[in-house]
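Dear support,

I submitted the protein below through the web form. The confirmation email said the job was done, but the results page showed an empty box. After a refresh the structure appeared. I'm attaching both so you can tell me whether what I see now is the final result or a partial one.
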Amino acid sequence: MATANEQAQDLALAETRSSSDSPSSGGAQSGGAQSDSGLAGQSRQFRLAVDWLSAPDADATRSSAETTESGEESGECGEEADYLSVPSGVSYLIGPNGERPRVANSAGRNKRRAVLLEPLVDARPPAMVVIAGDLADVRVNGLRIPSWGMVHEKDQLQIGDYVLHVTLFNRTSIGPVHERHVGKECPVCRVHFESNTRVFSCPTCSGPLHLQGEETPEKDRLECALAVTDCPACQTRIEMTDGFSYEPELYRG
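What the results page shows now:
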């Protein structure tokens, strides 16, 4: 039988998913443009920059780092430098218990002190559901959340002595236009996309813009993605290199 906390988690997830899909949600605040579910998530990912309120215990940090390298017992998700990567779907932020926080695919024995995370990268603006376990003391921007909440880029999650800065990593998506956009007009030049058209896809709404390369004669080449600074559909800034749209200044004790 599900515990009261598990039932609350299910209810919170249902509410946030319904809100994200609703026409009155943040997804309709950008001129009515709709994202392609599942496509935006391939090029954008939430990451948590690990910081702390006070210098952590060296032995605990070392022990956590050793566990992170193997990742076998914990079912830990990918991690890069000082950032915790939050995968698509449901994952768990586990900590502190004297250790550095980590993101895992399963809460395992730590379920009551774990924090459930579910990114909604195709929402506008992108958001992440945060549901605290029974024993988890979680704060968002300094305020304790009673059971669940929602965070966005530039927010701060505090768990124990650690502060996790919420940021987004954007991965440039350049390649053939997705089949659902074939025959549609480019919002910049109004030329229809063909099945073999090379495009830049917005990391937020997946909207395509022409970005033809050497496969097209220079005189016929359409490079609409280079002609604008923001996506015409959702106003996301266009970046041609992989990287973070926001990098926090870390305290580091």
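Response: this is the final, complete result; the empty box was a page-load delay. The two ends are 43 Å apart (CA to CA).
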